[in-house]
């Protein structure tokens, strides 16, 4: 696969790429059978099958699982999956892994990938724009960029398919089986190389039994949610599962002058899975999905725009003492129109010597979003995000055991993605002209390939040696730049202020070595040294300086981690703790710089050296005390720059970054706790749940005196009533019960005023669910 000729890729480089692809296929071919290589599709299941295998244990029978859960617990497939998945991961993964089942997600009212972070230690996720582009960070590793073209250091996988851009996982949190968060550099047993880790979101798969559920919910601000899933066995060899979700509600923000609402929801998502049992050793899964979003974007608050510009309070901003739900959007045409969908084909074949898996996927997304990014009723830095995404990927691997002491995974990954966009920044107020726009017209294309090998050798009965390696090759191409639409910066209207027509390629070997020791059955110690790599990137926002658009070099990370995992009392008590030390080179991050024309703007740059150290502890207690479930986590981070930064390509920063300055998206402390208690009432069961999450304040951009969040906390309560058969469930809940209004993301606007996003206020709702 090559880029169009307008990208300056030489024929020699294209031929080199073809040779690398041929080599990777050859390497895989030496390990797997030819018939397997000819198969298409895939269903890698990272939450079930791991490249690192523990000593095999006898599988628990359904009766034994029911006894372990207690006499009154539901025997639904979701509950069984929680037990088996947790056990498999604790025994098989030499690193920190956090898991939440679909049932837990539903009970905690987690509706989007961003909300996973509240209950996962060391993970942060915030919305830096109107709401559809969350920024993820694990242990301070991510990419704090609000532009939709950039992928972070975290790999987000939907049913095993890598989603390179935030827009691609909008709306797909429906009918979820579980979410698995893996910490540290990844890419040694599936997918793309990442520096920070991966988030694997897995949906419920079709089965050979008819069933499903229908769910309706009503919450604050007239929010209605309908969810539906049905599983239909079509033949003895074909099963189908269709899931549907639709949410529509009024916005919780009010304009102080027009009284219009903002932050409204109108989100539709559909997924259809068809499983084909080809024979007793082969199966295929077809996944087709679609998302549509017509919501109204939230608006940040600008608290001192009036003071900075000399206007009375409430004229263009909201002032420093505004209520949490007050915004000032004016007549700006805020709105969202997003449509996306795709398909993947998975194939799995069991051989006598191992399991071969292959997955091919393609996704497309189209969005047109008008965003009141500056938080003011005048055009200081409003945006129109207008882009089209195309992402294609293929991953295949073979997992095998040799002589029962050597466990091998070998695979190949390839992906291609393209974005065509026009990002417009409306700045009429700054230049005292009605039409004063800057637009970045661009096309960005990325090609990634990789060959990975992961091995586990049983040295002794209790000691395993882990060795992994990966070769990655990436090409990044960018064509376009920022146009001076109306001639407001001295150059002719329509001329380019910045322009690139370039490409960069990079090759990198990464690896991991480690030891895992079984202290007693169910308790393991481990230590690993690994390095991760993230490809270089471009900054596609409308910027008036060529330096702010230029290529940012690849990021490299070396990670040291030691930890302990223990599963006791037949999985009723689980404990996981770790200590880690990360060393960065060329850490990609967001800075605030001074641009030509007296404009302040965010841009990407790098820190030559940085370091992150910390620790995590998580634990779960399930029925150790009858009818009581407890879950808690704690994380500590010390993330700092080692090298000072005072400019980006010669552009001065708004505020210099000194050595030992804190890094963005790395809260010093964070913790969460969830308690559930069941009360039996004749044939029914009443369940009470309380949850609490807390994250320390953190930076969101370097060189920005306003780029710091508050301490964010939220308490939730839920009461659930259902028959012991779990045929139906009725629940009432409240999120953010204390109605906190912390600042979740803040920044300095183009006129040097301060804008901030606030956390969603108290939310009360009811859920009704019927299982059939």
Automatic annotation (TrEMBL):
<feature type="domain" description="TonB-dependent receptor-like beta-barrel">
    <location>
        <begin position="294"/>
        <end position="736"/>
    </location>
</feature>
<keyword id="KW-0406">Ion transport</keyword>
<keyword id="KW-0812">Transmembrane</keyword>
<dbReference type="GO" id="GO:0009279">
    <property type="term" value="C:cell outer membrane"/>
</dbReference>
<keyword id="KW-0732">Signal</keyword>
<keyword id="KW-1134">Transmembrane beta strand</keyword>
<keyword id="KW-0410">Iron transport</keyword>
<dbReference type="InterPro" id="IPR000531">
    <property type="entry name" value="Beta-barrel_TonB"/>
</dbReference>
<protein>
    <submittedName>
        <fullName>TonB-dependent receptor</fullName>
    </submittedName>
</protein>
<keyword id="KW-0813">Transport</keyword>
<dbReference type="Pfam" id="PF07715">
    <property type="entry name" value="Plug"/>
</dbReference>
<keyword id="KW-0675">Receptor</keyword>
<keyword id="KW-0798">TonB box</keyword>
<dbReference type="InterPro" id="IPR036942">
    <property type="entry name" value="Beta-barrel_TonB_sf"/>
</dbReference>
<dbReference type="Pfam" id="PF00593">
    <property type="entry name" value="TonB_dep_Rec_b-barrel"/>
</dbReference>
<dbReference type="GO" id="GO:0006826">
    <property type="term" value="P:iron ion transport"/>
</dbReference>
<keyword id="KW-0408">Iron</keyword>
<dbReference type="InterPro" id="IPR039426">
    <property type="entry name" value="TonB-dep_rcpt-like"/>
</dbReference>
<dbReference type="InterPro" id="IPR012910">
    <property type="entry name" value="Plug_dom"/>
</dbReference>
<keyword id="KW-0998">Cell outer membrane</keyword>
<keyword id="KW-0472">Membrane</keyword>
<comment type="similarity">
    <text>Belongs to the TonB-dependent receptor family.</text>
</comment>
<feature type="region of interest" description="Disordered">
    <location>
        <begin position="48"/>
        <end position="78"/>
    </location>
</feature>
<feature type="domain" description="TonB-dependent receptor plug">
    <location>
        <begin position="92"/>
        <end position="197"/>
    </location>
</feature>
<feature type="signal peptide">
    <location>
        <begin position="1"/>
        <end position="38"/>
    </location>
</feature>
């Amino acid at each position: 696969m090559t880029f169009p000729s307008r990208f300056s890729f030489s024929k020699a480089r294209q031929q080199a790429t073809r040779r690398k692809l041929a080599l990777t296929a050859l390497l895989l071919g030496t390990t797997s059978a030819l018939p397997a290589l000819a198969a298409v599709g895939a269903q890698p299941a990272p939450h079930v099958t791991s490249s690192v295998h523990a000593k095999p244990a006898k599988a628990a029978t359904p009766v034994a699982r029911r006894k372990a859960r207690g006499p009154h617990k539901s025997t639904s497939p979701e509950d069984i999956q929680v037990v088996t998945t947790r056990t498999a991961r604790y025994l098989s993964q030499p690193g920190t892994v956090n898991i939440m089942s679909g049932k837990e997600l539903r009970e905690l009212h987690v509706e989007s990938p961003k909300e996973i972070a509240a209950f996962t230690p060391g993970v942060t996720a915030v919305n830096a724009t109107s709401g559809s582009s969350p920024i993820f960070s694990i242990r301070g590793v991510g990419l704090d960029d609000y532009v939709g073209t950039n992928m972070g250091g975290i790999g987000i996988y939907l049913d095993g398919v890598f989603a390179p851009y935030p827009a691609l996982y909008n709306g797909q949190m429906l009918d979820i089986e579980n979410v698995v968060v893996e910490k540290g550099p990844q890419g040694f047993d599936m997918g793309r190389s990442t520096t920070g880790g991966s988030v694997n979101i897995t949906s419920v798969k079709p089965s050979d039994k008819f069933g499903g559920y229908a769910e309706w919910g009503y919450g604050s601000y007239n929010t209605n949610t309908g969810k539906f899933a049905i599983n239909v066995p079509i033949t003895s060899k074909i099963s189908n599962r269709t899931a549907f979700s639709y949410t529509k509600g009024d916005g919780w923000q009010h304009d102080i002058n027009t009284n219009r609402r903002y932050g409204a929801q109108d989100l539709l998502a559909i997924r259809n899975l068809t499983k084909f049992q080809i024979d007793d050793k082969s199966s295929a899964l077809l996944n087709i999905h679609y998302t549509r979003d017509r919501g109204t974007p939230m608006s940040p608050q600008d608290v001192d725009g009036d003071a900075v510009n000399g206007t009375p309070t409430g004229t263009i901003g909201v002032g420093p003492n505004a209520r949490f739900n007050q915004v000032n959007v004016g007549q700006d045409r805020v709105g969202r129109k997003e449509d996306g969908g795709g398909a993947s084909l998975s194939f799995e074949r069991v051989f006598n010597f191992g399991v071969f898996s292959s997955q091919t996927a393609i996704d497309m997304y189209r969005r047109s979003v008008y965003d009141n990014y500056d938080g003011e009723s005048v055009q200081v830095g409003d945006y129109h995000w207008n882009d089209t995404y195309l992402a294609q990927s293929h991953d295949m691997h073979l997992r095998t055991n040799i002589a029962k002491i050597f466990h091998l995974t070998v695979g190949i990954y390839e992906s291609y993605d393209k974005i065509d966009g026009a990002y417009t920044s409306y700045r009429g107020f700054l230049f005292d002209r009605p039409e004063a726009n800057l637009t970045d017209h661009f096309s960005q294309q990325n090609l990634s390939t990789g060959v990975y090998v992961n091995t586990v050798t049983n040295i002794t009965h209790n000691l395993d040696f882990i060795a992994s390696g990966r070769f990655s090759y990436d090409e990044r191409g960018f064509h376009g730049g920022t146009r001076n639409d109306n001639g407001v910066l001295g150059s002719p209207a329509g001329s380019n202020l910045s322009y690139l027509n370039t490409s960069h390629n990079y090759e990198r070997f990464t690896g991991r070595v480690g030891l895992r020791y079984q202290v007693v059955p169910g308790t393991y110690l481990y230590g690993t040294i690994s390095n991760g790599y993230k490809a270089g990137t471009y900054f596609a926002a409308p910027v008036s300086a060529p330096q702010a658009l230029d290529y940012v070099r690849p990021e490299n990370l070396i990670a040291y981690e030691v930890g302990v995992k223990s599963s006791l009392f037949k999985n009723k008590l689980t404990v996981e703790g770790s200590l880690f030390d990360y060393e960065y080179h060329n850490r990609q991050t967001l800075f605030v710089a001074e641009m030509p024309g007296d404009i302040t703007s965010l841009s990407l740059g790098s820190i030559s050296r940085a370091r992150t150290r910390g620790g995590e502890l998580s634990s779960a207690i399930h029925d150790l005390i009858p009818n009581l479930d407890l879950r808690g986590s704690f994380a500590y981070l010390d993330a700092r720059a080692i090298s000072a930064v005072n400019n980006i390509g010669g552009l001065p920063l708004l505020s210099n970054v000194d050595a030992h300055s804190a890094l963005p998206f790395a809260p010093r402390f964070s913790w969460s706790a969830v308690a559930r208690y069941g009360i039996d009432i004749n044939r029914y069961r009443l369940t009470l749940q309380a949850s609490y999450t807390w994250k320390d304040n953190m930076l969101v951009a370097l060189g920005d005196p306003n780029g710091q969040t508050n301490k964010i906390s939220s308490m939730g309560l839920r009461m659930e009533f259902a028959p012991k058969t779990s045929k139906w469930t009725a629940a009432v809940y409240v999120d953010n019960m204390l109605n906190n209004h912390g600042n979740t993301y803040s920044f300095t606007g183009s006129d040097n005023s301060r804008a901030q996003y606030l956390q969603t206020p108290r939310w009360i709702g009811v859920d009704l669910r019927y299982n059939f």
